[in-house]
Design brief:
Elements lengths: L1 H9 L10 E8 L3 E8 L2 E5 L4 H11 L2 E6 L5 H4 L2 H8 L2 E5 L9 E3 L4 E4 L4 E7 L8 E7 L2 E8 L2 E2 L2 E2 L7 H12 L6 E4 L4 H11 L4 H15 L7 E2 H7 L8 H11 L6 H14 L2
Parallel strand pairs: 3-4, 4-5, 5-6, 10-13
Antiparallel strand pairs: 1-2, 2-3, 7-8, 8-9, 9-10, 11-12, 13-14
Helix pairs in contact: 6-7, 9-10
The structure holds zinc ion and fe (iii) ion.
Length: about 280
């Protein structure tokens, strides 16, 4: 537990300006992270919702943008694409079935993005639920392996809202992500961790790993540090949406829903509903 927390801080990569490979989170809007992958003098960016902070980071790090990876069509993830393409000529990769401002390579489950000059090798996973065509990218980038860029599907101790998908789809998408190795760094697109953790504590008040991580995440935010990436090993211990098989999580979901829940999909649906209204 302690190790994964320490590692996630280290791999945030914001403070690795001395090295030539890494991943840094460019803060944007209220709580988005635009992930900048750097290798030598080249870079890729994941979900650039805004072009200006990306252009500033490219200039500051003296790197050229070669690739843009998109997970889904929401404005806070694609808003900067046209301007970045215009100004850098970067190649855009994105989900096969979503409406995007621009896309050069349409991707779906089983496709690979391999860019040797960026030391980037990623496998595409279909993860519908938040949006109908949402994809994730799992593998290696910026010297970090294994990692996953999961957009708005899996968050630290949370998951995306179901705008275009069913609880069953989202539950299956999360299970697909949860099947990645424990050490996988989870690069989600938003800093929602503390509010997710407040809710997770209500679901599992007796989970000691969750209590400990909540305290550490609070300290990190007090120091203005990002809490992401986390790791899948940690998420499996502290994220209720990945713990629908645990009797205590299922019991809490049923108690909150006020009715018996037949299977993990119903537990997931009840948890999602609970989180939607939790303040
Ligand atoms: Zn979204
Ligand atoms: Fe988003």
């Amino acid at each position: 537990m302690k190790d994964s927390v320490k590692e996630s801080k280290h791999s945030a990569g914001i403070h690795d300006a001395g090295t030539r490979a890494g991943i840094s989170g460019i803060p944007a809007f209220n709580d988005n992270y635009l992930w900048l992958v750097r290798q030598g003098t080249l870079a890729a960016v994941v979900d650039p919702g805004d072009a200006a902070p990306v252009m500033a980071a490219l200039q500051q790090q003296r790197v050229q943008l070669r690739a843009i990876l998109l997970t889904h069509h929401h404005k806070d993830h694609v808003g900067g694409v046209l301007e970045l393409v215009e100004r850098t000529g970067a190649t855009v990769f994105g989900p096969a079935s979503e409406k995007l401002p621009h896309c050069d390579r349409r991707l779906s489950q089983g496709d690979r993005v391999t860019l040797p000059e960026l030391d980037l090798d990623l496998e595409v996973l279909d993860v519908p639920g938040h949006t109908a065509g949402h994809i994730a990218y799992a593998g290696r980038a910026g010297g970090v392996e294994p990692l996953v860029f999961c957009g708005d599907t899996l968050f630290a101790s949370g998951c995306g809202r179901l705008f275009e998908g069913t609880p069953r789809q989202m539950h299956e998408s999360l299970a697909k992500l949860a099947a990645l190795p424990d050490e996988t760094r989870v690069y989600c697109a938003h800093e929602y961790t503390l509010s997710n953790l407040a809710w997770a504590r209500a679901v599992e008040p007796d989970n000691a790993a969750l209590r400990e991580w909540h305290e550490q995440a609070g300290q990190m935010r007090d120091r203005d540090q990002p809490t992401v990436p986390t790791t899948l090993g940690l998420e499996r211990q502290v994220n209720p949406f990945l713990r629908t098989a645990h009797p205590q999580v299922a019991a809490a979901a049923a108690a909150h829903a006020g009715k018996p829940l037949a299977d993990e999909v119903e537990v997931f649906a009840a948890l999602r509903e609970w989180k939607n209204h939790f303040r």
